[in-house]
Amino acid sequence: MTATTTTLNVSARHADTAPRLSFDEYYELVTFYSHYASVLDTGEWDAWPEFFVEECVYKVIPRENHERGYPLAVMDFESKGMLKDRVYGIKETLFFDPYYQRHIIGMPFVKAVHGDVLEVEANYAVLRTKTEQMSDVYNTGRYIDRIRRTPQGLRVESRLCVYDSEMIPNSLIYPV
């Protein structure tokens, strides 16, 4: 078989009902996640909103709130315009001690495929390094995503960054 006809069974738990993606489709998804991490790690803030569709959701929410259905989130944006406002804040108005981020994102697990929409989860860890300090674990959790295939490529329709700890640093400036 060629790479374009090979399919990957992306769920070991339910092999008979698991969504199937071609190798090329799965590679595109992995590349999408890698590019997302690269943009955040290099501080290309203007590129960050371009990973999303116009009417999108981006939340950073504690695991306990997510599991109990509580809506309270540390960050809660409902459109690409709100993401752009956050970028403006990072670049122009917020005052904070700058730091570097390093995202480590696990392999995406495709939970479901509905036409052009993929339901995907991926574990993440974000390390933070301040100048002249040791790196520390800044945030860990999982992305719960709805990713849409568009003419421009894959775009996030909804991203929940569900972080594991109830404690976070006193200021969450950069996107997770």
**Kindly, what is the distance between the CA atoms of the first and last residues, rounded to a whole number of angstroms?**
38 Å
Radius of gyration, CA atoms, in whole angstroms: 17 Å
Write down the domain tally. Answer: 1
**Mean pLDDT score, rounded?**
89
Structural class: alpha+beta
Helical region count? 3
Query: What shape does the CA trace take?
Result: globular
| Helicity range | 10-25%
**Element string (H = helix, E = strand):** EEHEHEHEEEEE
The top level CATH class name: Alpha Beta
What would CATH call the architecture? Answer: Roll
**In terms of quaternary structure, what is this?**
single chain
Uncertain residue ranges: 1-12
How much of the polypeptide forms β-strand, as a percent range?
A: 35-45%
Strand runs, count:
9
The major pleated sheet works out as: 7 strands, mixed
CATH topology: Nuclear Transport Factor 2, Chain: A
